[in-house]
């Protein structure tokens, strides 16, 4: 484990070019490369610092080559933040002015070791101190990790952990396929240019369904195998409509919403006739991973499930694809059918208020503190203007979290958290330990410091 420390510099404040939310805990120097459109990513050179307005999946090829990432917009749950954490690259997001205060070729230093991220003029000196992971304390609370990119799974698996609390399907879909599944399923109806581009991606595959299912399954399996036999919780796709529109062929299948964050996303898509055929491919991919590849440690999870009725419809749709849950088989013949456990994200106040009804049809819950916070506090977490008003430590949010932990424990159901909170705030992690949460899924770069905080809290509780 490496710790980065900036060496003393005279008049350091005069070197500040911009500041924003820090992602990771590192320092990196490199030449700035200002890019406003993904069409120009070929101009980017390995080791440069990517400076842009905001990123999406189209930017990932150069993000992997960057020494650091800086954006004008976005918060700590933005695409740039999630990918940079996964890749172990320092990032400063939501600076508002970075693209105006820097120009391509400027030598800059990106420092994310503090509570805020800062970009300095020039290549500043820093030192790296290494810590022995073998000395990290063991905890009763299971420490898991969040994984988005399959290619990074094996490297992350060497961190002290007990599995994956959140594997995001949408990152696999965007990076491996990069196309809208409904456009793929309706290939003959696409415009010539789109059809040609899709067929180019499908080169070597004859069956569109098989292409999608197997590519998604291989991505999931890579994460499942890296952490086997530990639990790997895989969230079904949670693209918002504006994100789906950016995928190849997506414009024909996605409405334009004023606020996609609280629009057509998660469970509401899966049983809707306009998206159901695509979701059935996702269910088939999970079935392939669990039943054909034997990675039974992979457990699917349903995001943004507003009502119990939605949860029922989703599981019925899964059953149509051959992926059966206990609820879907209730009252029906289970002969020759394999069942899979299934969790639901607890990220909407209704999930807490109707907890018993949700737990009647799901095997457990994972708290998505990012969405639970925004919906409790009336915030849009994609807005850089109001996100500073509250975070997961707000008393109202903590009250809901404490209630759902107690409810799941009373029902002997799985309860974990995969949201941003415990990764950002060690004292919030200590709060969760005090309430008896079963597991915490952390960003890879915060596993060590948060594990230490968890161990400290557990030790205090033991004394009492």
Strand-helix topology:
Blueprint: E1 2-6, E2 16-23, E3 27-34, E4 49-52, H1 60-63, E5 68-71, H2 79-87, E6 91-93, H3 98-101, E7 107-111, E8 116-121, E9 126-130, E10 142-147, H4 153-156, E11 164-168, H5 169-177, H6 181-185, H7 192-201, H8 208-227, E12 232-235, H9 241-245, H10 267-270, H11 276-292, E13 298-302, H12 308-320, H13 326-329, E14 343-346, H14 349-353, H15 355-361, E15 364-367, H16 369-377, H17 395-410, E16 414-417, H18 421-424, H19 426-434, E17 439-442, H20 447-463
Parallel strand pairs: 3-4, 4-5, 5-6, 10-11, 10-17, 11-12, 12-13, 13-14, 14-15, 15-16, 16-17
Antiparallel strand pairs: 1-9, 2-6, 2-8, 3-7, 7-8
Characterise this structure:
The chain is α/β, with parallel strands linked by helices and 464 residues long. It folds into two domains: 2-130, Glucose Oxidase, domain 1, CATH 3.50.30.10; 133-463, Phosphoenolpyruvate-binding domains (TIM Barrel, Alpha-Beta Barrel). Helices cover 38% and strands 18% of the residues. It has 20 helices and 17 strands. It has helices at 60-63, 79-87, 98-101, 153-156, 169-177, 181-185, 192-201, 208-227, 241-245, 267-270, 276-292, 308-320, 326-329, 349-353, 355-361, 369-377, 395-410, 421-424, 426-434, 447-463, and strands spanning 2-6, 16-23, 27-34, 49-52, 68-71, 91-93, 107-111, 116-121, 126-130, 142-147, 164-168, 232-235, 298-302, 343-346, 364-367, 414-417, 439-442. The protein has an eight-stranded parallel barrel, surrounded by five helices. Strands 2-6-5-4-3-7-8 form a seven-stranded mixed beta barrel. It has a two-stranded antiparallel ribbon with strand order 1-9. It starts with a strand and ends with a helix.
């Amino acid at each position: 484990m490496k710790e980065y420390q900036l060496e003393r510099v005279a008049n350091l404040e005069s070197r500040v070019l911009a500041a924003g939310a820090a992602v990771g805990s590192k320092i990196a120097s490199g030449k700035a490369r200002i890019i406003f459109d993904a069409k120009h990513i070929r101009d980017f050179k390995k080791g440069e610092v990517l400076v842009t307005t905001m990123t999406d999946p189209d930017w990932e090829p150069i993000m992997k080559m960057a020494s650091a990432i800086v954006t004008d917009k976005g918060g700590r749950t933005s695409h740039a933040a999630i990918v940079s954490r996964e890749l172990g690259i320092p990032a400063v997001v939501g600076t508002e002015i970075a693209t105006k205060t820097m120009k391509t070729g400027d030598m800059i230093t990106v420092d994310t070791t503090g509570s805020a991220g800062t970009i300095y003029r020039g290549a500043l000196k820093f030192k790296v101190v290494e810590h022995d992971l073998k000395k990290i304390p063991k905890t009763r609370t299971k420490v898991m990790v969040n994984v988005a990119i399959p290619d990074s799974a094996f490297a992350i698996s060497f961190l002290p952990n007990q599995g994956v609390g959140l594997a995001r399907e949408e990152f696999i879909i965007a990076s491996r396929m990069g196309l809208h599944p409904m456009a793929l399923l309706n290939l003959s109806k696409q415009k010539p240019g789109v059809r040609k581009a899709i067929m180019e991606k499908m080169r070597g595959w004859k069956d569109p369904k098989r292409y999608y299912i197997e590519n998604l399954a291989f991505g999931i399996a890579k994460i499942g195998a890296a952490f086997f036999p530990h639990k790997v919780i895989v969230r079904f796709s949670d693209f918002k409509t504006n994100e789906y529109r950016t995928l190849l062929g997506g414009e024909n299948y996605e409405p334009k919403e004023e606020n996609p964050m609280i629009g057509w996303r998660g469970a509401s898509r899966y049983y809707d006739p306009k998206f159901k055929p695509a979701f059935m491919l996702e269910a088939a991919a999970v079935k392939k991973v669990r039943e054909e590849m034997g990675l039974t440690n992979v457990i699917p999870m349903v995001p943004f499930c507003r009502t119990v009725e939605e949860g029922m419809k989703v599981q019925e749709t899964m059953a149509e694809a051959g992926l059966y849950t206990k609820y879907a088989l209730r009252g029906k013949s289970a002969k020759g059918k394999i069942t899979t456990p299934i969790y639901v994200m607890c990220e909407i106040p209704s999930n807490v208020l109707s907890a018993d009804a949700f737990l009647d049809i799901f095997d457990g819950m994972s708290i998505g503190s990012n969405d639970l916070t925004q919906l409790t506090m009336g915030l849009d977490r994609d807005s850089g203007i109001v996100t500073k008003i509250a975070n997961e430590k707000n008393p109202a949010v903590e009250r809901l979290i404490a209630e759902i932990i107690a409810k799941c424990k009373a029902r002997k159901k799985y309860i974990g958290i995969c949201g941003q909170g415990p990764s950002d705030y060690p004292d919030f992690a200590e709060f969760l330990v005090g309430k008896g949460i079963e597991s915490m899924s952390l960003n890879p770069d915060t596993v060590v410091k948060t594990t230490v905080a968890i161990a400290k809290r557990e030790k205090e509780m033991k004394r009492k």
